[in-house]
Amino acid sequence: MAENNTYGGASGAGCFKEAVSVNTGRVYDSCSSKDCLEDLRVYFTQCGQAQINNAQNVKCRRVEVIHVAMDVESVPFNQGFCSVDLTFYFLVTLDVYTACSCASAAPAVVQGLAIFSKKVILYGAEGNVRSFRSDCAEDICDCRMPSDAPTARVQTVDPICLSVQLTGCPKPEDGSTVVPPTINGIFDGELLSCPADQYVYVSIGLFSIVSLERDVQMMIPVYDYSVPEKECVSAVASDPCELFRRIRFPVSEFFPPRMADQGCGGDHQ
Predict the structure, then answer these.
(1) Which of 69, 88, 186, 205 has its CA 20 to 30 A from that of 261?
(2) Closest CA to 16 of 180, 221, 175, 211
């Protein structure tokens, strides 16, 4: 007796119907990175730098990746390979303690920017196709989408702040202090790169995946249209207790997983 399989809300998913052509992005090459970024200078606005100049100690509260600028170029004499230049922009949030701060007083929160650049070589194949779309603006530059170069994609998780250092001695600059206006617009003022009384340097642990993709047409099997089977539940309920009863009991919050449950090998008690 044949089973009535369902997959992703598609009834009869076990019955192949037709093959269709779809336009999608195919990953030609990718790599993962585990980078330890040591002693990145943190740049501040004039107001933030004034607080850093008067600081006796700083602590790193968190680090976020706010933008990654990418540039893809073909590698000469290496057919199909491309260099991907990456520039990571980190929003660094610090707790700043000054000599005037009382023991019970909360530290001042100061945000700055750290920058890191790297280059990777990946295989992106070759293509000489120019694509045009009908659902774009009237500007001809918007409708023309050059696809002779592959598209770079970067995925990251939240970085780890490994250490932070407050010092009056500047370290050698690498020259990569150009901040795009869109990044500078996040801060209340212009970021300064000139000499200062005190400097902040952070070391960051960064995990990332870089891939090169191309738009291709692929043939895929179709079983049925995917119709959601789960009913939408309104987040606003007339009875708040009824809404609370729909929330599952947070078992994992009360009983954290053991080391053996994390997939670690060996017998741990």
Answers:
(1) 205
(2) 221
| CA torsion through residues 131, 135, 138, 142, sign | negative
CA-wise closest residue to 29 among 67, 78, 77:
78
State pLDDT tens for residues 104-161. Answer: 678 899 999 999 999 999 998 877 667 676 766 555 554 444 557 789 999 999 999 9
Average pLDDT, the chain: 82
Helices (H) and strands (E) in the chain, counts: 5, 11
What span, in angstroms and rounded, lies between the C-alpha atoms of 197 and 54? 9
Tokens matching residue 254? 């009360």
Alpha carbon distance 182, 257 (integer Å)? 42
Residue identified by tokens 């976020």 is 64
* Amino acid (one-letter) located at 261: D
Q: What is the mean pLDDT of residues 202-212?
A: 95
Decide: pTM greater than 0.90.
no
